[in-house]
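dumping this here before i forget
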Amino acid sequence: MVTLALVGIATGPSVAAFTVGIFFPFVDGRCAVIGNVIATAFTTWLSFGGLINKPYVYSYPVTTAGCNITDENLLADISSPVYDPSTWNPQSHYREGVSAMYDISYAWLTTEGFLLSIIISLTSSLILKNRNLVSKDLLASCVANSSCTPQLFKKYIDYGKDEDDRDSTKL
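structure:
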């Protein structure tokens, strides 16, 4: 479980950094690093907090005390519950507030780190306003060459020279 938690901490933000770099031309390196560092710190906090503050696991009773069936022949005619559910309140074992976040499964840490890193990278790029152009060769072809690419993206893409001009300048 610890190994999977550590893999989740590192994998989500790392994949998000590559995804941001390939699909969002207006996000520069410093914004991707900001998103990556914050998402890694947050998923690390959740992971180790969950390992330290283990969730409550209810254990069902294993005794026959309180069982209303005393004869094996009575099993065919059960009119009342074998276990009295009024003796247990499941809501009493749920955490509230910040400690409820520790109950998130370690399997979700990768997804959480991925999404958080992308959101923070995009938000920080809007705040810090990147002015650099990105070569279309570094972007995914669906972003660089598509007629459906939004104008917001196109103004950050450096389309450079035509392919014919590039070939003639090679040695």
